Amino acid sequence: MRLKHALKVEGNPEIHHSDRGIQYCCDEYTSVLKQKNRSILISMSKKGDPLENPIAERVNGIIKNEYLCSYNLTKSNYKEQVAKAIRLYNLERPHYSQRMKTPSEIHDGIINPLTTFFRNKNQSLTLTRN
């Protein structure tokens, strides 16, 4: 199970937030989060409200529209192509709001993830540190 691997590698977060997909609601998944040695609070979005988690929706939309639309997806290759799209997004796609660094570079601590660019009303670029 990928959840166990992620928890082993990344450690236990205080909160695990997800949508209400069946894969996140099933006993096998939630029982891992509820283990006494973990103390992870389970948080789920409101039923039927994709705007509850806009960052995840944005990432899914980018992967779908920028990568998967150009692939010839079949039953036999879709898992491989989705994995490829996720790798490209995380390892090769720079993000303007993160000073043109990739998500992988941010995760690995190459730059401070709280330093972001925003445009003000006059469209001039300002650097904001949260």
Automatic annotation (TrEMBL):
PROSITE patterns: INTEGRASE. GO terms for biological process: DNA integration. Residues 1-111 form the Integrase catalytic domain. Pfam families: rve_3. It comes from the Bacteria. One of its GO terms (molecular function) is nucleic acid binding. This is Transposase. The lineage of its organism: Bacteria, Pseudomonadati, Bacteroidota, Flavobacteriia, Flavobacteriales.
